[in-house]
Amino acid sequence: DSGVTQTPKHLITATGQRVTLRCSPRSGDLSVYWYQQSLDQGLQFLIQYYNGEERAKGNILERFSAQQFPDLHSELNLSSLELGDSALYFCASSSRQQETQYFGPGTRLLVL
Amino acid sequence: SQQGEEDPQALSIQEGENATMNCSYKTSINNLQWYRQNSGRGLVHLILIRSNEREKHSGRLRVTLDTSKKSSSLLITASRAADTASYFCAAGGGSNYKLTFGKGTLLTVNP
User: Fold this and answer.
1) N- to C-terminal Cα distance for chain B?
2) Collapsing DSSP states into helix, strand and coil, what is residue A86?
3) Does A102 lie at the interface with B, CB-CB under 8 angstroms?
4) Mutation site for A-interface testing, chosen from B63, B99, B100, B105 by largest number of A Cβ within 10 Å
5) Fewest CB atoms within 10 Å of the CB: A67, B57, B101, B108?
6) Does the distance separating the beta carbons of A102 and B98 come in below 8 Å?
7) How far apart are the C-alpha atoms of B88 and A86, rounded to whole Å?
């Protein structure tokens, strides 16, 4: 158990819909990272937040957005969903002094 | 784009044998990390090696890093069936420490 929690574990929805994925980092970790894992693209970095502020953006679509709240949990919002958005979405967290990222169990999204 | 490239893509060995996986990356890094993933589940951190280190050990794991060749290797000694998983290298770079993953090596350890 990494200490990072993600909800829900599974999500099935339809094209055009919007969903919210939630992540709680390890206690004390200020950085939260979101990654997407799909069969064709592999593991891709989406976005990073540090203590509530966006720090870096990767291959994140404009239809996707994220935020980190004062209690440090983070949410990833996916809108206008397409079939190709079906993937595993991981959240990871790290502390300021450590480079190791600890991953949550992931949310498996299926868009039908 | 993928920065890390693992080699081989798949590896099948017998229990007790050693498994070696290689990783190459493209740009300068702060560190290189190895993760394990069991069949579509979460990623488990195995080991981190910094750019100024050449070799690191953790239990049955041995990682080497050659920054001049932009490559790393992960050796698992005396493998067990429970080591069956996908192994990913991830290049950590920049001030935000984001990770750039390779496509992974699928290791199968046969009992």
Assistant:
1) 36
2) coil
3) yes
4) B99
5) B57
6) no
7) 21
